[in-house]
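Suppose you are handed only these lines of text.
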Amino acid sequence: MKTSRWLGLFCCTLLAALTLRAGAAEWNLVRFESREYVTLDNIAEFYGFPKPPPVDLTGHFAVPPVGAPAVAPAPVTPVVITPPSGLVTTVEKITDEPSPISSQEPPPAVALSKTIVLDSGKMQIEVTVGLREAQINGVKHWLAFPVALHDGQVLVSRLDLSRIIEPNLRPELIEGMTPVTTVVLDPGHGGHDRGAMSKFGFEKDFALDVALRARKLLESEGYKVVMTRATDVFIPLDQRPAVANTIPNSIFVSIHFNSSSTNADARGFEIFSIAPRGAPSTNDSGPRERDLREEPGNAVDMPSGALAGSVFHALLGHVPMVDRGVKHARFAVLRLCTQPAVLIECGFVSNNAESTLISSSAWRAHVAEAIVDGVANYRVLAERKTRPKVIADYRRAAVTGVNLRDTATP
Ligand SMILES: [Zn+2]
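From them, the structure of the protein bound to zinc ion can be written out as follows.
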């Protein structure tokens, strides 16, 4: 495997700083198909995850079944035994250390999976060889490039490490986050642009309703709120982020509903922030030339990513919908916004069950509350540099009846 030292080669100051903080662990870059990667073993070592099990040539990990002790296989040496028939045969026998598994119990079957979960108790990452989907601390995140397999090593792109994994595992170290005093709410579409449609109504009206409910809640919690539209009017796309760009210490939250013309089963929540420079948009199948362009929104792509994660954990933690993931795009409202910005897709009007939910004002009120909790979650991170709550915190609080809003708002 060709490796080169991370230090000295990697121009990103963030990861240079990380390397200094890492102390014991060093980053080794692996070049593969003209892209730079780090190994999963390297990531595990850096963040203090248990060492991943070995991967086979087809990209499968040997994953012990749930509850089985994680034990590295003992060395295997061939031994010769003579069966009663007199025929000599060779079998494999496990030698060395006695297994912690009782000899009375059959050894657990080992499942083969292309997915591996790294769990330190405090943090969790799940990656799958060949896929761009990863789970980080309980929600789906879309990587820029598929997890690769090369030379017996599982590889994660350097860009995904620095722009997705690191800021989600250690969000308190993200730089450039400013306090949040104003929330710019951007209900999608409006006027002649009706957006998607269900038998119950138009996306533009549902989005405006959720935004107006969120405005009320945010104002009651002391935020200033500016709406890109508060009525059914058409606002050109470039004028929407321009509203936030003139307001210091603001964040931009665009609210939409989703639709699929080809898949009536498509459902769930997803959230977008600006794609980092060099990363394909999640909905593109591969890199494009425009991915290399520096967009105005790239100046805040780390805070925007943190806002997306904070809001998405709250959203899914409060409203049990399918997790379609934290995604990246170059939508005009994200590209042109120089304040932290996200676009939320609050379910599918093209899905029967979800369009019924979306038509319910009580359900939309619930979504608005979850978005407001997500904003509070980001505000705590931005202003106190403490970790935002994750989906499990919200779900636990729902079970125990704790009001997280009381604790989340500074
Ligand atoms: Zn829309």
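What can we learn from it? Residues 1-14, 16-20, 70-103, 406-410 have pLDDT under 50 and may be disordered. The pocket of zinc ion is lined by residues 188-189, 195, 203, 256 (CB under 6 Å).
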